[in-house]
């Protein structure tokens, strides 16, 4: 069951810490079956309720999962082993299209905006008690939201999209609650949800985003929140269109208490219009990150939503972080207001690269998805063998396991690092890795 590893402890906290230490050290592998509570209680000489409390704490931390009579197991992706943990360095000469980073050549220089932000700060330094959101940033964000048809609501600022998602979820949910999440979807969200003590209910995705029937099933199964990527879905490139948005709104109309969270991280790099779900239910939020358009190190996202949700987010933020640096806010204002970034040109550049790769793959008989953003998703039968074959051919790609719960295997190709001359070579390598001949050679 546990091999040579022995769980120790007399208190619930010590027992939980012992299991967590084993998972963190790799001595308790993903999927390892834990002893039944009464059996472990007998071995440790403690009350079964003590072990039950330890297991409950581990479930709430996202370390283990319990499936009725099948018992408790270490999660396939325990929260102590995130999907985006440092990867093995690629061999010299291998082109890395796995990390999901934007093209640095399309990112604006921050020298001018940061210098302007410093000058503004020098005139009126931020002090305790000041408004946590720069009024000019709030005005610009609100205008952009309104232009995209997002319902009116207050504005908050968080340290990136994931920080915003965490704050919105914890504003309404409690450990044990279920969250409907796209599958395949952003690995960080798939890790964050169980780390918060919440349960993931996977929702299948097609090129138009979450499938309405799958969302309906998740809501019927008790999901108290739905997280949707509006555009540039990671890893599939899906984008919610007008018709799909209407279908999803119709499903949500029967669940007015469900929290709906739109992640619009692709704002500024996507040509397709936004069709968000905000306002479909009583509580909602929409988050926009500066990372893809302006640079990952600008740890800033703006969000809006209903009054109750935003009041809870801002109230909890005041008790912890306090606010996101006004210097960063001023810099984003400069980038936003001075048109230092030609967002249409950036979106067009990513779109051209993505379309070129999809066309090249299609010409070689390879099925792939990538309606928007900077990623292309290729379904495969065996991720390990395809990733290995592509590595041998000089391409480092992301295995789909980082993005999946129940979805079929696939690989993610990020087009932001591709030059036009690379497209045909990459498509040839992918087609070769997927060919029956390659499969026979790998398993010979």
Architecture blueprint of SSEs:
Blueprint: H1 12-24, H2 37-44, H3 48-60, E1 64-66, E2 72-74, E3 95-96, H4 111-123, H5 135-147, E4 155-158, H6 161-172, E5 178-183, H7 187-195, E6 199-206, E7 209-210, H8 212-220, E8 223-229, H9 242-252, E9 259-263, E10 284-289, H10 291-294, E11 301-305, H11 307-319, H12 326-337, H13 343-363, E12 375-379, H14 383-392, E13 395-396, E14 398-399, E15 410-414, H15 422-434, H16 436-442
Parallel strand pairs: 3-13, 5-6, 5-8, 8-9, 9-10
Antiparallel strand pairs: 1-2, 4-11, 6-7, 10-11, 12-15, 14-15
Helix pairs in contact: 1-3, 2-3, 4-12, 6-11, 8-9, 13-15, 14-15
Shape: globular
Q: How large is the share of residues in beta strands?
A: 5-15%
**Level of helix content?**
40-55%
The whole-number mean of residue pLDDT values reads 91
Gyration radius over CA: 23 Å
Please, could you describe this protein's structure?
The chain has 444 residues and is of the alpha/beta class. The protein contains 16 helices and 15 strands. The strands form four sheets. It has an eight-stranded mixed sheet with strand order 4-11-10-9-8-5-6-7, sandwiched between helices. Strands 12-15-14 form a three-stranded antiparallel sheet, with helices on one face. The longest helix is centred in the C-terminal third of the chain and has 21 residues, at 343-363. Helix 7 links the parallel strand 5 and strand 6 (199-206). The radius of gyration is 23 Å and the shape is globular.
